[in-house]
Known about the structure:
By secondary structure, the protein is mainly α.
Amino acid sequence: MFDPVIAPSGTLLGLLQRGRGDGTLHALTAPRSEALAALDHCVLNDPRHDWQVENRSLYYARLYLDLHGGLGAIERHLFDAEDVLNTDDSRTGLALAVLGHLASYGRNDALELLRRYAASGTNWAWALDELALRDDDAGLRALAAPVLARFPADAEGEAELAAVVRDAYEPRPWRLWEEDPRAHIGTRVRAAREQGSFDRWQRQMRPAGPRPGWSVQAVFDWAQEGLERGAVLHVPAARCLSAVAGPEDRAEIVQAARSGSDGARGTALRYLADARDPAVLDLIEYAVEGHSRVVADAATEAFERMGGPAPVERARRWAYRPDALGAAAGRVLASRGDAQDSKLVLTALREAVRGEGPDAPTLWTLVDGAGRLGIACAAPVLRHVYRETASSHLRGRAARALAATDPTFAAGFAVECLWDCEESTRGVAARHAETGDARVVNRLRRLAADPAEEDEVQTAVRSRIGPDADAPAVEA
């Protein structure tokens, strides 16, 4: 999947791609044709950098409802010839998830599209999962024959079917199909489930990797072999090392951390960091100054995971470094520093935005740290990150940090956050948005009544408008 092209944050398309609340508010006041065109573009061209952690489907589904939008563009996208050529889930996953939410809101056209696609589309398993949550038993039973027809009645087809049944995210359709009296449906699905259970048992009986009784050197060799295959194993290898190493092995492990193979060095550094060995901080500094990127990454990762006061004290010295270790030190202070570290965290935040932009991975920790430490001077940078980042999760973190640092948040960004694509961000807004704005009152009522809304958000809403709320209840 290619990285999505994100429009500027000041445009309607850019706002909708980011999942910002202002996207919905602008779409509702824009010409309807323009708003629907931008909405279709987002749904058919997934704008998320990581669909596994960023939400958009409920956000877009709600906007289709508000705009009374048709589903013709989604239908053409799902049943286009490209569906056969491009089998990546990312091509159709967002559209199917949007249809799932629309079906839960009572849009029968969305339900019918999901049924048709589950019967004939390439990404049928995703559509089936959506239907498992929303369709009735009769609708799911009607899909048994077309779904099972995808698997030839030979050894290879039966093995593939067993794997699909075993790994199904939503088991409800398969359980219904097991009860089907027809042999080519019920008997076949039951056999597939039994074979999948047997395969799972066999995998559990054949564990891979280190066994009890391995030596320290054997663990290092295993880590290096994995690295040569392209698998970075220093984390599981360090856990194995904890099981096989004793006090008498410390000298060997320290030596491996200093001059072993890359796999051994990463493993040894992680082990020593987890053990809070007094030598590990100097070894981490030495590793970062070397020529191996793999070892340097393992060293900074181990440093950031260390507990106790020693890494925080060292971070205060390293925070001035203009390298990866300096960046890691800034994140350590953001996570575990105290008020005296506010200036260093603010500097790290500004440098990250200036040098890497509003989507830099390091910003997640630094933004959280600015909020945790209540760094009021960070508010302008946090507002910039909020507006510009393409990551809805990072924007949500920025909103939480602004709630702790920016006195204008309640009457400003908190209002639009009530329409944000992330439930955690809507929860922050529900707790902080100024109810003097009529839009806030109406939105809180709608969120409270929406069965698709997350429990976290509805709990926050009830704390503002319920009978036990600390603030005066919103007047009807």
